[in-house]
Design brief:
single chain; alpha+beta; 7-stranded antiparallel sheet; 6 helices
């Protein structure tokens, strides 16, 4: 390869645009290098469809004009010989494009109207798969492409494959970034949900504890009420009996029917009743005192001696 072609290829290979992931910038650099190195006015990048039944222009330099995503597309059914040649995945070297077996199908519709006499198509490969071509088109007198020029075009096509890898890497990194952002958002959302659930749980737990406290107090009060009601009930019953006996004796006394035996019996029953009342009231008082002693504030009714000073 001549020094001029080698230098152009080296400059392209060393350019940061190849690995930046911007296919348009990389393609423009490569096609500009092709037009300068091969001294042609037209060069384009063509890419296959997934089924390889169509190949369309991705970028085209025509003199000072540069077009992106051109409307030019070639169908296999319209140009079977050309596609058969591309299927071999070798460079298409057509010195006489109008007569060459692989390119003469373009004569009437493409080559003659544009004044193209010679074509050099180098396959673009990415990870071992042919994705398209870099098409170098010579206008004017026919020319014979030499091996150095074929190697130069092929090297530029390989460099575009490198640019495709960089673009895919950028796409993967962007997708990974978006996935990470979505994952972080999901984590934040779930964290918020868990925090809300924890707050609700703590609130519910506090309510349950409070309810249990109230229930415990209720059971305590109910038990205490039952314990106090028993002696109070006995005292009330005994008090009622004493009142009833007192009225009976008063009636006998008013009717002058009260005798010594009736009065003695009344005194006995009154003594027993008052004793029963006193015992049960003391029992109730003791229960209340014990209950007060079980609380946080202790008090006592017992007399104590202490030094006043």
């Amino acid at each position: 390869m001549s020094k001029s072609l080698y230098d152009i290829l080296l400059d392209v290979s060393k350019s940061s645009m190849i690995d930046d992931g911007d296919l348009n910038a990389a393609g423009l650099l490569i096609l500009t290098a092709a037009t300068h190195g091969l001294q042609i006015n037209r060069a384009g990048i063509w890419l296959f469809s997934e089924d390889k039944q169509t190949i369309c222009g991705k970028m085209l330099i025509d003199g000072d004009d540069c077009k992106l995503d051109t409307d030019l597309c070639l169908l296999r059914q319209d140009f079977p010989r050309y596609f058969d040649t591309l299927d071999t995945e070798r460079a298409v070297v057509a010195n006489n494009a109008c007569e060459d077996e692989s390119t003469r199908e373009f004569s009437e519709s493409y080559l003659i109207p544009l004044g193209i006499t010679s074509m050099l198509d180098a396959p673009i490969r990415h990870r071992g798969v042919m994705l398209g071509i870099i098409c170098c088109e010579h206008q004017g007198e026919m020319r014979e492409w030499n091996n150095e020029e074929v190697a130069f075009a092929s090297a530029l096509a390989d460099t575009y494959g490198r640019a495709i890898s960089a673009a895919q890497r950028n796409d993967y990194e962007q997708q990974l970034k978006e996935i990470n952002e979505q994952l972080e958002q999901k984590i934040n959302d779930r964290t918020n949900v868990l925090q809300d659930a924890l707050r609700n749980l703590n609130h519910t737990q506090a309510k349950l504890i409070e309810s249990e406290k109230l229930a415990s107090i209720g059971r305590l009060v109910s038990g205490l009420a039952h314990e106090i009601n028993t002696p109070l009930g006995i005292a009330v019953t005994s008090s009622s009996h004493c009142l009833s006996e007192l009225k009976r004796v008063q009636t006998l006394y008013q009717n002058e029917a009260l005798n010594e035996a009736e009065f003695a019996q009344f005194l006995t029953e009154l003594d027993d009743g008052l004793g029963l009342i006193n015992n049960n009231l003391n029992r109730a008082s003791t229960l209340v005192q014990n209950f007060k002693l079980s609380g946080s504030i202790h008090s006592s009714n017992e007399e104590e001696q202490f030094e006043l000073r």
